[in-house]
């Protein structure tokens, strides 16, 4: 153990000082012997250890024995830390490649990936499990997560087609055009990065090149939803899609110029501001449900719906049918698309996790 | 020559407070270090003279003088510097013979790299068919032990490894010496045991057609009396264990040298060379072991070392008596330490020991941190210490003329404190 720990330490010290490089080959030879289950060069081990202990021996010889034990413990810790670090680097790299974030359970914490709202993982982290004295669970969850990432690797190489993941009754921003490819975005109405993507899409004129549709996916939190009113907004969005005359896939061709009501609602949430310059998305995120309902219905009135139609929309939003649609959409997002970052957008044969820049969209 | 060394001492070298005067006995106070070792740091306690002795200032000066004032090749040039080198080297050869009480009529002196090289030069060139066996002893270090293995194999004869008596004498039956090549050390590098029956061994060997080659590496510095006038066929030793510069010395009888099957050849050994043959020098048998250029400066410095050791006095004592006194102090002090197992049966300039439950290498490193330099391990005597006696690695303290009583006391104090803390 000590030889391997010495090699690890010398590797770093040798990188900055030639003085330590001369010991590296010895330490390497020792490490190779160790990992191939042969006896280590005890001379090297002892030399290193003795030289570390010598200053203690001069001042307080009685402390040599405990210090020697401490060095062995330290060596074990160095090795464990290094192995764990190596494992974390590999795992993070894999996650970054597969999911676009080095931290699958909290994608927002990874600065290497694109900006996004993370979908929290309910599984306790390794540290949480250890603190809860669930060692088996800690390792089990850890390796299960790694296995999941590895099994998702082939998906990274897949030719992604938005059409494969479209829910029934998808709504398109512009009139559906068979000559165009379809692009599908997964959004949470309360997620600020979805707002950013929406603005980028507008700026890039993305909907001119693609049949753009979406899945509204309210991100679940540890208690309820990550954004408290996302579910309510999603219910209204789905209810609007179900209203007669809505511009969904089936009847989009009937009225090419009309922007569907659900898209109008999204546009208002993502691009609109109140008279104090506060975005409506922020307002909705901080309101209680009756306030949000009132605001949505106020907008629907502005969009030209009669009070009766608005009442129907409200009833539909609260219906089991919409609940079923949202549940199906959740299944698509979590199982089929298997993303951990919101927004996610599928186009150009790839799944893009997180905000895509204007250039990226072009 | 002595006056020439003194006069020519380079002014820029670090000078001791006393200058070297070969005509005046040198003395020092009870605890003062010889000024010839004034370069030694206050906190440096060098107790590994058994490996290599420290060089007194006159030896360093002699070497520096050669390099700075007459740095020429010997034995082959006609200009003044070269002639001076030849004269100095000849003086050294005479001084070596004088030290051993031998005559240039019967013996020749050859210089080489070290004792091991000297022994190998002899053993690898012994003629085949002349000897019936190779004898050595268990206590020998590798410079004797290994070449005798190779020699027995090359000569196609058995190799017999004998015991040494507690007093260091070789234990043998006379018939074992029949036409034997006997290679033994005059003093052990483990515990300083002397080959007390050297004279009898030589007589018995010669009476039975054998030859005796003595490894005098440890004996030459402080037990040269054992070797004086020896009838041994060859004596090999190292100048660097007797206060000289790094150099090996072979003193051999001209009879032995002329009997060698010389196969290690080079310049300086021949009187004439033809396309496919050569003539070895007819009247300089010492040259038969000196192929190529020699370490002229080191050879010259050896003369300075021999002269210095002959003249120096410490507390009014000759080097041998001084070392004996210091050896007793060290031996007694170490023996009293709890947990210490002495390998030595008696005091000697070389004292080996081990401490139960403590690794000697670790102890050496710890002592080094206090400025105390001692040797640890098996001292190239693996067969005897590890295989035969089954001992763990040892710790070895060895003394030189640079050693003071305060050095020994401080080493003992630090060692005692260390052992107490580690126990």
From TrEMBL, chain A:
Top-rank taxon, per record: Bacteria
Protein name: Uncharacterized protein
UniProt source species: Glaciihabitans tibetensis
UniProtKB/TrEMBL annotation, chain B:
Keywords annotated in UniProt: Lyase, Pyridoxal phosphate
A Pfam family: Aminotran_5
InterPro entries reported for this sequence: Aminotrans_V_dom, PyrdxlP-dep_Trfase, PyrdxlP-dep_Trfase_major, PyrdxlP-dep_Trfase_small
Region described as Disordered: 1-29
Record-annotated Aminotransferase class V domain positions: 45-410
Molecular function per GO: lyase activity
Cofactors: pyridoxal 5'-phosphate
Protein name as catalogued: Cysteine desulfurase/selenocysteine lyase
């Amino acid at each position: 153990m000590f030889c391997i720990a010495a090699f690890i330490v010398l590797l770093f010290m040798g990188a900055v000082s030639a003085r330590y490089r001369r010991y590296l080959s010895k330490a390497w030879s020792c490490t190779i012997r160790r990992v191939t289950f042969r006896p280590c060069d005890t001379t090297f081990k002892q030399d290193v250890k003795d030289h570390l202990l010598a200053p203690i021996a001069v001042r307080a010889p009685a402390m040599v024995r405990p210090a020697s034990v401490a060095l062995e413990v330290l060596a074990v810790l160095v090795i464990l830390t290094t192995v764990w670090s190596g494992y974390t680097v590999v795992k993070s790299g894999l996650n970054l490649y597969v999911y676009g974030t080095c931290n699958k359970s909290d994608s927002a914490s990874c600065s290497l990936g694109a900006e996004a709202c993370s979908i929290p993982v309910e599984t306790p982290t390794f540290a949480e499990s250890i603190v809860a004295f669930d060692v088996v669970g800690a390792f089990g969850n850890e390796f299960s997560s790694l296995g999941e990432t590895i099994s998702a690797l082939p998906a990274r190489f897949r030719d992604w087609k938005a059409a494969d993941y479209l829910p029934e009754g998808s709504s398109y921003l512009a009139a559906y055009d068979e000559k165009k490819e379809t692009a599908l975005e997964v959004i949470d109405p309360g997620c600020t990065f979805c707002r950013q993507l929406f603005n980028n899409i507008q700026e890039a004129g993305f909907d001119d090149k693609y049949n753009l549709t979406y899945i509204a996916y309210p991100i679940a939190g540890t208690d309820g939803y990550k954004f408290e009113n996302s579910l309510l907004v999603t219910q209204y969005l789905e209810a609007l899609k179900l209203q007669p005359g809505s511009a969904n896939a089936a009847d989009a061709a009937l009225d090419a110029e009309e922007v569907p009501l659900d898209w109008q609602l999204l546009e208002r949430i993502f691009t609109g501001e109140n008279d104090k310059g506060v975005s409506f998305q922020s307002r909705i995120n901080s309101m209680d449900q009756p306030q949000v309902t009132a605001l949505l219905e106020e907008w629907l009135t502005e969009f030209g719906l009669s009070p009766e139609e608005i009442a129907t929309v409200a009833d539909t939003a609260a219906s089991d049918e919409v609940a079923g649609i949202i549940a199906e959409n959740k299944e698509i997002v979590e199982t089929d698309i298997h993303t951990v970052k919101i927004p996610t957008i599928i186009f150009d044969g790839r799944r893009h996790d997180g905000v895509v820049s204007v250039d990226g969209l072009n | 020559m002595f006056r020439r060394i003194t006069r020519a001492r380079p002014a820029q070298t670090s000078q001791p407070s006393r200058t070297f005067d070969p005509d005046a006995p040198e003395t020092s106070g009870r605890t003062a270090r010889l000024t010839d070792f004034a370069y030694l740091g206050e906190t440096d306690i060098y107790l590994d003279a058994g490996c290599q002795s420290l060089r007194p200032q006159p030896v360093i000066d002699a070497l520096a003088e050669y390099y700075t004032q007459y740095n020429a090749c010997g034995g082959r040039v006609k200009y003044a510097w070269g002639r001076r080198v030849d004269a100095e080297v000849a003086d050294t050869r005479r001084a070596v013979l004088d030290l051993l009480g031998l005559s240039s009529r019967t013996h020749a002196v050859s210089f080489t790299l070290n004792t091991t090289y000297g022994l190998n030069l002899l053993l690898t060139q012994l003629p085949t068919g002349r000897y019936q066996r190779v004898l050595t002893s268990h206590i020998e270090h590798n410079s004797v032990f290994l070449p005798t293995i190779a020699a027995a194999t090359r000569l196609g004869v058995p190799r017999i490894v004998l015991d040494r008596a507690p007093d260091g004498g070789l234990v043998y039956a006379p018939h074992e010496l029949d036409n034997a090549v006997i290679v033994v050390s005059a003093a052990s590098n483990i515990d300083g045991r002397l080959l007390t029956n050297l004279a009898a061994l030589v007589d018995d060997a010669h009476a039975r057609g054998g030859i005796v080659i003595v490894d005098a590496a440890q004996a030459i510095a402080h037990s040269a009396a054992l070797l004086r006038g020896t009838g041994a066929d060859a004596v090999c030793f190292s100048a660097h264990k007797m206060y000289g510069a790094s150099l090996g010395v072979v003193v051999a009888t001209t009879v032995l040298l002329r009997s060698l099957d010389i196969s290690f050849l080079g310049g300086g050994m021949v009187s004439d060379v033809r396309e496919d043959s050569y003539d070895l020098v007819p009247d300089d048998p010492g040259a038969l072991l000196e192929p190529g250029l020699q370490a002229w400066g080191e050879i010259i410095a050896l003369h300075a070392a021999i002269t210095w050791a002959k003249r120096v006095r410490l507390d009014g004592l000759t080097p041998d008596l001084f070392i004996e006194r210091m050896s007793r102090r060290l031996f007694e002090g170490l023996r009293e330490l709890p947990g210490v197992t002495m390998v030595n049966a008696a005091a000697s300039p070389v004292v080996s020991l081990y401490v139960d439950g403590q690794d000697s290498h670790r102890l050496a490193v710890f002592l080094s941190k206090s400025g105390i330099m001692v040797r640890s391990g098996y001292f190239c005597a693996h067969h005897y210490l590890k295989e035969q006696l089954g001992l763990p690695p040892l710790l070895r303290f060895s003394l030189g003329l640079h050693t003071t009583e305060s050095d020994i006391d401080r080493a003992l104090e630090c060692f005692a404190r260390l052992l107490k803390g580690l126990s």
